[in-house]
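Technical annex, item 7. During the second reporting period the consortium partners agreed on a shared format for inverse folding records so that results from different sites could be compared directly. Each record opens with the tokenized structure and is followed by the designed sequence. A conforming record, contributed by the partner at site C, is shown below for reference.
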């Protein structure tokens, strides 16, 4: 939970640092720029999720050679895709800012952010692969260490570049790039040490085994489609919020940090479900699958209630910490109750995601998310007259749809594991 919580803190720190400058357009620019990278990078989130499921199953089956190969394949994909993203950065940027409408000033700053942060692509994707591999092996403390390296270095660099050197949006992006590479280097060094303990060696035949690659591609393809569908929903949310002006965009960006932090915090239980369910599936243990599902979900539900209570008590204080702009503070307070509901409404679909990832039931996840995205668009269209309130309501209709569709597939998942 702690290691996962540190992931959204990158965005929180970026917003908090830039929010000390009383200019709503700067907060909006970082929000739009970060949204583009959420879409671009998390499209390859299978490097985290797919690697966790495959590694956990290999670990549960006591297949050390495949545990090693799972990391090798993931890092190879991360490197190749990261370099390709840098090479095609111009068309990505133009397409992204054509789809995401903001004011001319906001878009100008956001493009500056994009032009710098895109160079972190190989390191960002390598960090996904490393995090997934360590979680799959149940090495949560190492995952925590890597995330702390990433986020503490990002916090320090952001403060230095923005508040010390007055680099503005350029400083936020530069600090994130350096922090990503530092975390990737540390992660690779730690992984190399664990591989020596694990024993064995790199086997080209296993690493490029056609059947294993085909399974990896199938799992990753479905997770990629699922991730793109999810990111589309949040991209649509931010894009529609931008239509209501810079102040609403900035307020939504701040409140979405509350949603993201609570989601990533609760995803710690989903990660635990991934590892435990993956081991149960690898060991062909249906009872273990059921036990892992129940245990992690009840704990997650309890913490979700606590998280909502914390947002009720400290929500307005957190808004004031993230921005000094009076207009943004006022609008964020108006819509704060929506963000308070996020943990209680989202925890159920987060847990189901973890269970399905651990079981590598990626086709079910893909189908469920596609249906849920369609339901979101319908809800948004119906609720449009309510403007930003309707936008938030549609987001939570999406949460409910994700939960319902995954529950529909759950009995089949359980039956697929031998008693």
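Designed sequence (site C submission):
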């Amino acid at each position: 939970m702690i290691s996962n919580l540190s992931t959204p803190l990158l965005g929180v720190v970026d917003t908090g640092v830039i929010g000390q400058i009383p200019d709503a357009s700067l907060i909006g620019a970082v929000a739009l720029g970060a949204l583009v990278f959420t879409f671009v990078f998390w499209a390859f989130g299978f490097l985290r999720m797919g690697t966790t499921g495959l590694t956990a199953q290999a670990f549960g089956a006591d297949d050390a050679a495949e545990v090693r190969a799972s990391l090798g394949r993931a890092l190879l994909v991360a490197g190749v895709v990261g370099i390709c993203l840098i090479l095609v950065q111009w068309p990505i940027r133009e397409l992204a800012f054509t789809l995401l409408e903001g004011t001319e000033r906001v878009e100008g700053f956001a493009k500056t952010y994009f032009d710098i942060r895109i160079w972190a692509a190989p390191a960002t994707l390598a960090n996904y692969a490393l995090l997934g591999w360590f979680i799959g092996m149940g090495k949560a403390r190492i995952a925590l260490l890597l995330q702390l390296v990433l986020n503490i270095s990002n916090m320090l660099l952001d403060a230095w570049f923005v508040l010390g050197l007055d680099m503005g949006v350029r400083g936020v992006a530069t600090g994130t790039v350096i922090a990503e590479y530092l975390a990737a280097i540390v992660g690779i060094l730690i992984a190399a040490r664990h591989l020596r303990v694990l024993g064995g060696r790199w086997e080209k035949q296993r690493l490029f085994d056609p059947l294993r690659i085909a399974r990896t591609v199938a799992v990753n393809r479905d997770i990629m489609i699922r991730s793109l569908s999810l990111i589309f929903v949040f991209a649509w949310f931010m894009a529609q919020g931008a239509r209501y002006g810079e102040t609403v965009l900035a307020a939504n960006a701040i409140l979405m940090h509350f949603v993201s932090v609570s989601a990533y915090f609760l995803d710690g239980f989903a990660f635990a479900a991934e590892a435990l369910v993956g081991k149960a599936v690898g060991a062909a243990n249906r009872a273990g699958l059921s036990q892992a599902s129940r245990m992690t979900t009840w704990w997650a539900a309890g913490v979700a209630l606590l998280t909502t209570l914390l947002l009720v008590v400290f929500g307005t204080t957190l808004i004031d910490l993230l921005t000094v702009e009076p207009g943004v503070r006022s609008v964020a307070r108006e819509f704060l109750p929506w963000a308070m509901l996020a943990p209680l409404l989202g925890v159920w679909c987060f847990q189901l995601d973890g269970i399905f990832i651990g079981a590598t039931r990626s086709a079910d996840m893909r189908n469920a998310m596609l249906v849920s995205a369609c339901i979101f668009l319908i809800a948004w269209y119906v609720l449009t007259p309510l403007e930003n309130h309707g936008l938030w309501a549609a987001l939570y209709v999406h949460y409910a749809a994700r939960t319902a569709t995954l529950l529909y597939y759950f009995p089949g998942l359980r039956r697929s594991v031998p008693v």
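The chain is about 85% helix and 0% strand. Residues 2-415 form one domain. All partners now use this format for quarterly exchanges.
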